[in-house]
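User: Second chain of the day. Same drill as before.
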Amino acid sequence: MIVWINGTFSAGKTSTARELTGLLPDSTLYDPELIGDALRALLPRKRLAEVTDYQDLPSWRRLVVDAAAALLAEVGGVLVVPMTLLRQEYRDEIFGGLAARRIPVRHVLLAPAETILRERIATRREPGPPELVDVHVRQWAYDHLPVYRQALGWLTADAHVIDNGHLTVRETAQRIAEAVRTDTATVCDIVQTPEPTRETVASGVLFFDAEDRVLLVDPTYKPGWEFPGGVVEPGEAPARAGVREVEEELGLTLDRAPDLLVVDWEPPRAPAYGGLRLLFDGGRLDPTLIARLRLPGPELRAWRFVTEPEAAELLPPQRYERLRWALRARERGRPLYLEAGRPTP
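Assistant: Same format as last time:
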């Protein structure tokens, strides 16, 4: 199990985490900031200059998950993780990766009042020459307060919130330990299938509204929007898999197998294995059916109908190319075969 202690800078995450490891049996402190330090030493300067925060590096997010899984396999018990996550898509990616490894996460948010945060930032001291280090660190912390305020909406809905503004480090750790022992700490129950060990087949189903906008969904367990659908199970027909996934995800029951639009071969790109990706035409939904659309809380965060240009802003590039050609196939009335999102010559 992981106890993830979130909060903005100067919320008291690291000191609380150290104290908590003395209260929870068989617990180990795991600070993902060390992975950021390692990447700063390992990556070329050109790559580091392209990002403002190591959290923006896909390698950091993946290594955080891989290292957590390796540590739990090595020592077992509980990992206590003090790490700020203010971008929901990064939370989705990391917690989704942990869910794929069947690692439960208790998400805790330390949320003192902003006046207290500003006071702590102003009096914070860092190792090194104060005229160089303290000013830089303080400004970094101040700059993140607006980001933190914007994130509070999803953070407070997602995490077990503790206002530690007037609590000691010991008292804060005791509250977390009690919440973990009594199962009142929020379980971030992101739904995610295990990571594949070979190529997979996945089926998506496209639905349209009266304006011919296409339905996309926002999964909680990975960045970027998606098509309704999912991985085809062993022995399952791809079209039937799409029907099953749509019913599970949206509460829509299709009375027939949908028509095929595209078959796209997605090449392997480490660490992904790739495989076949199929898109089917679920047809146009009338307003009554649209009004009945539902979402399973842990798996999907939102749905919306979008135009093709809007989809380009929401979907990862290869997924958008798949959609683009699926729309052309729908217009032409015949399915297309793609490789890496492009029709073959």
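DSSP finds 13 helices and 13 strands in the chain.

User: Great, on to the next one.
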